[in-house]
């Protein structure tokens, strides 16, 4: 039977899903153009990989601080309203950043404040938007909806940096921020045409709702193991991306166009990985995809740190992107598919916290290590720590509480609930 490359089209039978998909495509594209412009601006202002890591930390710190309560809020209040308010705030901030950059009025403290504020808006928008994206999809098509969300994100990751590579030399870095502001306008127009399911606000305190989501994952050993892997990779593996402006300018000598090509190559690999994963998650055990994708990512990233050839480095980043997305697609499909609708916002919030909320710690790790040992050694150290940690987590987590193997195959995943680990070591369905 031939492998299907694209996800199933069934979610697009829902008109709200189609509208939200188009708006999210615009928002993702603008965000990637913005991110490349921001990284290039910081490096031009400082010339230091340390500052690249520090500003990446500032932008993602709100996710560390607020993604968990934001996920709980997405289960308590109207998700569509949260997304609209957060995107209006991001539109205004991106417009302000573009204006200040155009007038050459940006200082490092001002830039840092705006970057933090944009991250704050994103920390509340992301869990609500992802949960809303699944709300408007048919319940039986959740896995296909998750796959299309991955395709959407990684398609923007391919196209956005390429757009930025053209915009920065021809129109200036301020145009990157205005492009992002325009993308929010399009996204808001789509959101205003989407109706989301009515939600009854929970009477439970916010902290209780948050603890409930954490306990839900913590009590299910396979879910806890997968969550731990995502956190490990975020801190020590994925943080290499903040150093790419330094590699493009100082090691590969390719300038802003080279930076755009490098990030686009990673996006191309990620897009290919997301397309492949949509078929593979239906035919292969999810743990096999998790560890296979993670192994490819770590090996490619380690080789990239040693490369001095622009073409070879571009190819390696493509492979790294492919491996990382196969790992994340399989892991996120496993987490979200087993979350009940009432807890989905909190599970998405926890996944967001682990994949993006821990990113400031990874950025700080990259900043500090690169300051003393250099950027290439930083990536080598991070991938090595990921490899050792993965072995430990694999031995501990991907077995059932009673000692039997958890296969995690898609057919089995759909037909049974994960066991809950009890204090006495027994399992409870």
Helix content: over 70%
Percent of residues in beta strands: under 5%
How many domain units? 1
* Mean pLDDT over the full residue set: 81
Q: Any idea what the CATH architecture is?
A: Up-down Bundle
CATH class: Mainly Alpha
The arrangement of helices and strands along the chain is HHHHHHHHHHHHHHHHEE
Q: If strands are numbered along the chain, what order do they take across the biggest sheet?
A: 1-2
Report the structural category. Answer: mainly alpha
Major beta-sheet overview:
2 strands, antiparallel
CATH topology: Growth Hormone, Chain: A
Q: Could you give the count of β-strands?
A: 2
Ends apart, CA distance between termini: 34 Å
Low-confidence stretches: 401-429
Inertia-based shape:
globular
Alpha plus pi helix count: 16
Note down, in words, how this protein is organized.
The protein is mostly helical. It has one domain: Up-down Bundle (Growth Hormone, Chain: A). Helix content is 78%, strand content 1%. The chain contains 16 helices and 2 strands. It has a two-stranded antiparallel ribbon. A hairpin with a 5-residue loop joins strand 1 and strand 2. The two termini are 34 Å apart. The C terminus is likely disordered.
Topology:
Blueprint: H1 15-46, H2 49-76, H3 79-102, H4 108-135, H5 142-171, H6 174-191, H7 206-218, H8 221-236, H9 244-251, H10 255-283, H11 286-306, H12 310-337, H13 344-357, H14 359-373, H15 375-397, H16 410-415, E1 420-421, E2 427-428
Antiparallel strand pairs: 1-2
Helix pairs in contact: 1-2, 1-5, 1-6, 2-4, 2-7, 2-13, 2-14, 3-4, 3-6, 4-13, 5-10, 5-12, 8-12, 8-13, 8-15, 9-10, 10-12, 11-12, 11-15, 14-15
